[in-house]
Prior knowledge:
Layout: E1 5-7, H1 12-16, H2 21-28, E2 32-36, E3 52-54, H3 59-71, H4 73-88, H5 92-109
Parallel strand pairs: 1-2, 2-3
Amino acid sequence: GEHAVGTCGRGRDAAEEAFGLVILEAMASGVVPIVSDHVGAADCITDGIDGFIHRTGDAAAFAVSVDSLRVKSILRKDMSSQAVETAQAYDWSVVTPRLENAIMDMIDEF
């Protein structure tokens, strides 16, 4: 079937995770993430555009997001496409040169 919803932020480990690479991997596959504001991956998501971000423990908001994606196929498809686009900005081919430049700048300052 069509996979369009992913969740993060439930349970002890997810609430303590600094950055969930799995969220970006899912987004790259078109999964629309629903995350807690307690995880680092929330920094990569624009709420309502390429995923949903909710306060930890806000079950009602979580349910509204899941239901919106379930019943609104156009919203789900648009957010899925946007999630793929967002994930591409974090691809190693994009991030590596920026990281190398930052390292070189630090070395030059040292």
